[in-house]
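fwd from M.: "can u put these together and see what the complex looks like"

so here's what she sent:
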Amino acid sequence: QKEVEQNSGPLSVPEGAIASLNCTYSDRGSQSFFWYRQYSGKSPELIMFIYSNGDKEDGRFTAQLNKASQYVSLLIRDSQPSDSATYLCAPAGNMLTFGGGTRLMVKP
Amino acid sequence: DGGITQSPKYLFRKEGQNVTLSCEQNLNHDAMYWYRQDPGQGLRLIYYSQIVNDFQKGDIAEGYSVSREKKESFPLTVTSAQKNPTAFYLCASSSPGTTEAFFGQGTRLTVV
């Protein structure tokens, strides 16, 4: 089993809708997580860091962490075509290993 | 401005040659990482280093080598033993306690 699992997608949502991206992890010791956005051909950019159970909001982005169920999710409200990218999650730790990423497509 | 810089952006290598990719950061981060990304795929960890003069193999270290002589620098050498080196290479660094981690802009390596 991979340490971090993500549905590869593509996840297609209409403009203005809420996009929900999920990530499950196997190491119960993981305490905090990163979410990155990667546009095609570019390097990943950090969009969220979450370290406690519950929700963390930053603009249109909300990260949710549930340590008991071992998943972390990213919600994007009012999705825009510019949000179309691959979203990667990673537990913050010594090795910083990534899930395969979920490709999001926001259709105008 | 603080940041992490990879060079060159594009690199061409002949088969059988070693090539070194540069990664420099001025964020005062302790940890640094190297990843390989193939088209349409995720990031695979090659090597990582938590402190100067120490580094660990990641999932796909064969055919690669690194050094960490300075906190700011973590060069990656792609050796001739790497049979399929054409890929996008990404370097990252993270803060103590790993509360932030940033990437360089990447190096696209092509074997010709």
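replying to her w this: The interface with chain B takes residues 32, 34, 36, 41-46, 49, 51, 88, 90, 92-101 of chain A (CB under 8 Å).
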